[in-house]
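Is this the right way to post structure tokens for a design question? Let me know if I should format differently. Anyway, here goes:
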């Protein structure tokens, strides 16, 4: 396996082991997610409100358990074992989805497995790079493409199988994807850096008490997590209310063929790996002129862009007056703006955690970052209950207001947070 480069410096082979492992894990997760709301409303015959609440709880809890999975890895089993255990549990969960009577136990296996897997795969990306290495940010951009490569193909494969052949075929395909990711990870472990538990066992590291500077950085992450909650509450409408819009309010006919509604969930990840190179080039161009925003400023921009994406849907609502359906262009344009907002926030946030977190707590704090996504995903389910209670234009304006407020909030605390974490030091470069 080669070592492609960004900015001329080769990346370690371990990055691409983690890339393909995460790609297949995300294939399994998003493949199942692309079917979840449709499966509950069309097959299990749950109400839209109940389905939205279950969707919010499930997508929320898969981001709740990583905090405890990170703590378990940091203190007891190490990151490598945690990833393997998590992958096995998730594979079991996907295959249990084949059986209707095991629907809720299957969700439990997926939640617990994700808790072990999610924080510990991401932190291993950061461990491949020395402190202050600018390639770390670029590595997370590459890693994020892997996430979304899996997320792109999963609705096309699992969604099509589930909608056209039977729900259980789609869920089984998700399980096969998770097994593929596990095989790649186990085979490629020799290319990964030893985790903290392995280093302690070899006498190469020993736990050290947290310094006052460490605590300042932890509290800075806590503040950013609070704004991250709002971002994901709005963003996750993609798989909830926006999936319902695509199914019921969007004209999906193309030359006499109707595109499956689940395919719309492939648009966002496709745009991510199409536009990531252009955006990273744009940031490099800004850096060359001394104008590249800091990491936290990028996160603020990401929230504002996410809010702006739902303004695009207002003309789409108008075109549905009288029982008509909106063209696919409106949802596509909304997804484009939303995707750029995501690229400004999500991979930048992952990289920021590995920069600021004390080494002995890096997995736990990565779990804390995902814990904010738990509250965001749970809130997304609550927000989704207003879909049938509010006029659609008011619903989209509500999403815009929430996300824009989060973006302005991050911007308002930029300077005090930078002072708190020691902006300008080598370990906090570009914060």
């Amino acid at each position: 396996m080669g070592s492609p480069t960004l900015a001329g410096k080769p990346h370690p082979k371990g990055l691409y082991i983690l890339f393909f492992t995460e790609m297949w894990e995300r294939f399994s997760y998003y493949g199942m997610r692309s079917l979840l709301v449709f499966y509950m409303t069309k097959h299990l015959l749950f109400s839209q409100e109940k389905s939205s609440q279950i969707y919010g709880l499930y997508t929320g809890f898969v981001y709740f358990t990583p905090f405890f999975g990170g703590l378990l890895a940091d203190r007891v089993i190490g990151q490598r074992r945690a990833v393997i255990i998590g992958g096995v549990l998730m594979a079991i969960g996907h295959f249990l989805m084949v059986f209707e009577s095991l629907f809720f136990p299957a969700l439990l296996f997926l939640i617990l497995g994700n808790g072990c897997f999610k924080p510990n795969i991401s932190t291993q990306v950061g461990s491949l790079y020395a402190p202050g290495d600018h390639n770390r940010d670029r590595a997370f951009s590459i890693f994020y493409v892997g996430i979304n490569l899996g997320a792109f193909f999963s609705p096309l494969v699992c969604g099509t199988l589930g909608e056209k052949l039977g729900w259980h075929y789609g869920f089984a395909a998700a399980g096969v994807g998770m097994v593929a990711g596990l095989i790649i990870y186990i085979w490629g472990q020799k290319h990964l850096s030893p985790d903290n538990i392995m280093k302690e066992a070899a006498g190469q590291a020993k736990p050290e008490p947290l310094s006052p500077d460490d605590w300042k950085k932890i509290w800075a992450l806590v503040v950013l997590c609070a704004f991250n909650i709002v971002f994901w509450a709005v963003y996750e409408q993609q798989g909830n209310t926006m999936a319902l819009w695509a199914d019921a309010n969007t004209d999906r006919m193309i030359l006499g063929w109707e595109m499956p509604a689940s395919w719309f969930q492939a648009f966002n990840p496709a745009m991510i790996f199409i536009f990531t190179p252009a955006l990273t080039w744009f940031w490099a161009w800004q850096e060359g002129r001394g104008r590249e925003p800091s990491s936290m400023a990028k996160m603020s921009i990401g929230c504002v862009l996410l809010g702006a994406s739902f303004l695009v849907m207002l003309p789409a609502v108008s075109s549905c007056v009288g029982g008509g359906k909106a063209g696919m262009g409106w949802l596509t344009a909304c997804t484009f703006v939303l995707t750029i907002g995501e690229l400004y926030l999500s991979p930048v946030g992952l990289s920021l955690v590995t920069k600021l977190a004390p080494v002995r707590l890096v997995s736990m704090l990565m779990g804390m970052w995902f814990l904010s996504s738990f509250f965001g995903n749970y809130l997304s389910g609550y927000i989704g209950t207003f879909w049938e209670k509010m006029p659609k234009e008011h619903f989209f304006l509500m999403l815009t207001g929430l996300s824009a407020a989060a973006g302005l909030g991050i911007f308002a605390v930029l300077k005090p947070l930078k002072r708190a974490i020691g902006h300008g030091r080598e370990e906090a470069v570009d914060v």
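Format looks fine. Someone answered above. Worth noting: Strands lie at 5-6, 9-10, 253-254, 257-258. DSSP finds 16 helices and four strands in the chain.
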